[in-house]
Design brief:
Blueprint lengths: L2 E5 L4 H12 L4 E5 L7 H7 L8 E3 L5 E3 L3 H13 L16 E6 L4 E6 L2 E11 L2 E9 L8 H16 L2 E4 L2 H9 L10
Parallel strand pairs: 1-2, 8-9
Antiparallel strand pairs: 1-3, 3-4, 5-6, 6-7, 7-8
Length: 188
């Protein structure tokens, strides 16, 4: 199932959303309104008469208007949780690239494979520190090291942001304990 995004290349939000889908290898049909002015009616219809872009229409008929990256991540997660799979851009058979994203809307870090959440860590945030009470991997993806990959990505994100972590989840605590290079990230 694919997604259709209406916008224009001159729009920063359109370019950012396009990059978000491309980074996650989620197939999306892009409709540049400068090249297809007859499609403007679809944008106006979805926006209750207001021309805001991008307008992103999902396979279930839902849509988002000018979404942030967090809103995109949350919506894709909701679709996946509802069993609505999104089509991945074709790639080589050995291309299993994974991406870790922070979904602050849902209060979790997510490990995405082809746009689907395979592992996540819930968190709460307070004054530049996060507390991670739970790490979980989808049952069909367990045993592939995804939780460890999630932790590595999560730790890289908080390091880049200057945050610290309090790992309440036994897996998260063990991962940090076993990897000395991350000990400085543990909140005092």
């Amino acid at each position: 199932m694919t997604i259709t995004m209406y916008g224009a290349d001159w729009c920063g939000d359109y370019r950012r959303a396009k990059a978000w889908f491309e980074e996650r290898r989620i197939e999306c049909t892009y409709v540049d309104l400068a090249d297809a002015p007859d499609e403007v009616d679809r944008v106006l219809e979805r926006g209750n008469g207001v021309k805001k872009i991008p307008v992103i229409v999902f396979p279930d008929g839902s849509h988002l208007i000018e979404p942030s990256n967090d809103e995109l991540s949350a919506h894709v997660t909701l679709l996946a949780d509802a069993g609505i799979g999104l089509t991945a851009v074709s790639a080589a058979a050995d291309d299993d690239r994974l991406a870790v994203v922070e979904n602050s809307y849902l209060g979790r870090f997510e490990l995405l494979q082809h746009g689907c959440v395979v592992s996540f860590a819930t968190y709460t945030s307070d004054d530049g520190s996060i507390t991670v009470p739970h790490v979980e991997t989808d049952p069909e993806h367990r045993g592939n090291g995804h939780a460890a990959q999630l932790m590595e990505g999560l730790l890289a994100i908080i390091r880049a942001d200057g945050r610290t972590i309090t790992p309440r989840c036994p897996f998260a605590a063990a991962h940090i304990s076993d990897n000395e290079q991350h000990h400085d990230l543990v909140a005092a």
